[in-house]
Amino acid sequence: MIARRPCPVLLLVAALALVACDDEGHGNVKTGFGDDMGQVGEDARPDEPIDRSDADPDGTGLGGDEGPRETDDQGVPPDVRDMAPDMLDAEPPEDDADTEPPDRGDMDASGPDGCEPGAVMRCGEGECPGGVKHCTADGRFGECEPPPELCGDNADNDCDGRVDETLVGNAVPCHVGVGGCARDGVLYCAGGFVECSAQPGDASEEVCNGIDDDCDEATDEGVGGNVPCAFGDGICRARGLTICDAGGNVYCPAEAG
Known about the structure:
The protein is mainly β. It is about 10% helix and about 20% strand. The protein contains 3 helices and 12 strands, in the order H-E-E-E-H-H-E-E-E-E-E-E-E-E-E.
């Protein structure tokens, strides 16, 4: 709400009404309560009363001008506006409380890193600029995964501290597959990329032999192995899981206390 400003016209008229001048330009200051506040000129008290009929002939309280005074589009006389233009034209300060906050609806709040699960982002620097990060299910990017080692470029592409470790003659061992499918080999260069010379073996039906024949990282399951067993009596009783030996025999490895 804009506060009302005091009217400059009324203040000016009130100020003029406090000074009464005689024909020679002398006068005294009146308080409006019948007492003199001070003297103006050499003769503050003239012997003859002063005729004020010409000061306000139309009784409007605006002096001796005849007819209505000209005003601007805000109803203020030009001479009054010249006296205090800043006060008349001042605008009220804006209320910052009405300012709306910026729209943040387009921000992605799917996770702490703001990524959608499954998204891929490039990463890495120096000799490993071609790495990637994968966005996990909780909206976070995982560790930067370096690019594979290249052969013959004399650079540590995978950032493992070794340069072209797959060059002919290095004989770096490698391992592929699990259980009965595991095979060992050596790294070699194939088309500029590192490969392992071994290939995983073929899975087979699980038998009781102490080997993970079906290559599922479980041994002898369903054929006698990995079955709960116990050995001994009372407080000496021990528990374990059955094991198949190479001859196809099943035994309980638990030892009584």
